[in-house]
Description:
7 helices; four-stranded antiparallel sheet
Amino acid sequence: MSDNEQSVYAKRTKTIHYGSLEESDRWHVERKDNETDGSGKTDYSQLTSSDYMTLDEDVAKEKAALLEEFERRKKARLIHVSTDDGEVKSALRKLNEPICYFGEGPADRRLRLKELLSALGEKGLPAAKPAKEEEKPKNQQKETNESTWYHEGPESLRLARFWIANYSLARAKKRLEEASEKVRQHSATKAGRMVELQKRIQQLAPQCSQVGDTRPITGCSINEDSTLLLTCSLSSLCKVWSVPDCTLKQTLRGHKFNVSDVAFRPGVANDSKSEVAMASCSFDGSVKLWSYDSEESIADINGHVPHRVAKLAFHPSGRFLGTACYDASWRLWDLEQKQEVLHQEGHTKAVHCIAFQVDGSVCVTGGLDGFGRVWDLRTGRCIMFLEGHLSAIYGVDFSPNGYHIASGSQDNSCKIWDLRRRQMVYTIPAHTNLISDVKYQKNGGNFLVTSSYDKTAKIWSDKTWQPLKTLSGHDGRLVGVDISHDSQYIVTASYDRTFKLWAWD
């Protein structure tokens, strides 16, 4: 072999034999004879489980653990836990768990409770009864929950309900006729009016800014002819101001504690004497009625003491007065019969606000339980339940169209509800702090105003709910807002002891 030729080396593979090949061949032959029947076919029924690869124990345990975790998460999603932080803490306490960890918020605490309940499963719940024994109590409970019970009311309530029914039917007929006329209008005409309104809103500017009291102002209201403004404050005084120059005309003295809200009675002339023209309510539960010709109250309503009365509102007829009380109820007072005709419960916590529909047939209340309720004054039934807010409701109002309701809450949002469909139609993420009050435009409902603790009031368009204008200038949180009946003025009341009157330029 020459040096130029390359040598090729072949590496021999090693063969490892386990045992004797003879014995292995003999075992295979014997196995084949046993598995084959007389026809020469293999009998697969004689195969043993040793011929298949068994599942490793560790893999099986891991798979079982994963399935168990998926089941637990599925149960956690199906478990309903209250959004009330107090109830969540109470449930944790019953399970002997810490009610709060360091840095844990309400949402994290609620999630922890869900995880605990899903992990405990049947152990954390009462033992389940057999299906046959369980069917009967469930059916009985369903019948109990769905049944409506009544108790006999006073004769004054029956008379009030008949009167409200007759009053509201005529107004509803008129409202529907006006709505039909608007529908027949050309769409270009409607669009032009809306554009003109938006331009006017952009021109809103402070007409007057007045120091209303020595202590923070808590409420404000404008009368029907837009010539008078009524404010209240924590100094226990109520004051009547002229519009638009904001000159003090009358100081109402009589409350012994902080005044929370005021309202003008509709249908009362400015020159009337010894007639109920205004109403106010206080933190101590007192409600006082005032006239234009006296600085002292002409009548007192003391049925709420010692619970706070947060808001009040007059029925569109002026005959009835609705009050929202912190004893978890609201009341209807008949000023002609001079007595309480309805004491309505239904909320689980304090009732903070109340508003009447333009027809006068229904009213809406909002409470610190985060829910609202719509009540039919003619029958006494709750015809709609407003569920959707995450926290207390501080302001409610009806649109002039009769079926839209606005509610403002501590969750910084304003929700729009449709009474016809009995559901929420829109949520406005309105402010960066709680909403203290909400008001619709009274003579058309083309826009909505919200006031907030973020020191601003905002104007929103109807239907599209887009922001049109932000009214800023107060140094403290806003506690109240109102719109004049002719839409010429908007008034805002603040904790900085001032109120501002906004008007078109």
